[in-house]
Amino acid sequence: MAKTVFLTYNFEGAPFSGGTSLGLNESLHCNYIQKLETDTLNGKDLNFFFPVNSFPFLNDMDSTSGTGWTATKINAIVQVVDGTGSTVTAPSQFWKKIDVTNQLVDHTVGAAITKNSLERTVFKITSAQINTSPIYNLDYLNIPSSLSGDTNKLGFGEEVFFFGNVKTDIGATVYTTDIAIQLPLGEYNSTTNPTWDGVSSVYISEVGLFNDNNELLAVGKFNYPVQKDSTKFRTILFSLDF
Known about the structure:
Layout: E1 3-12, E2 34-38, E3 45-48, E4 73-82, E5 96-99, H1 115-120, E6 123-126, H2 127-132, E7 176-183, E8 202-210, E9 216-228, E10 234-241
Antiparallel strand pairs: 1-2, 1-4, 3-6, 4-5, 7-10, 8-9
């Protein structure tokens, strides 16, 4: 029977140790899950690798700066499901965890994993490893089992202490259409406002855009009214942001 293979990974750390670990515990698995379809796994190996610069903040522990994060173990998280197609899913209780740390190139088991080692390694998983490896579960996260109980445990979205400063920057591309509206000397000098005395200057407080069928498409409002009379030529810039 054809098979669908789901694959992701997670890292584990060691207690704080100078030159080895900054103290990271077992981390949550990566949520970028790869999907592979095959006719059979018999006689086949599952290979995967990481592109260059996949882990820019991984600390190789070549200094004591304390920045970034560290790991001493990497696990492949795998599940094989019968069938193929877009409707095939991976039940949460059947994932397998396979320690692939010993496959790292130029790595000493127990030492900090380096970016160079990760990027140079092609990891291999056999079908036998998948069949015999232990089930992967999330018990280590210590998630509350209910909303009413386990009140001493933190759930997702709840506050945790984070010592330090975080600097963020939000970047976005904004597209703007600018429409220049000219108000000649002899036009737009009167108003249908019943309070107008017919002599004083008028004040423009908003501008409307209409299509060829005289249907209102957009309205722009000024921060403060703009004076207009026969001695003033005005150009109004109407901007639409998308």
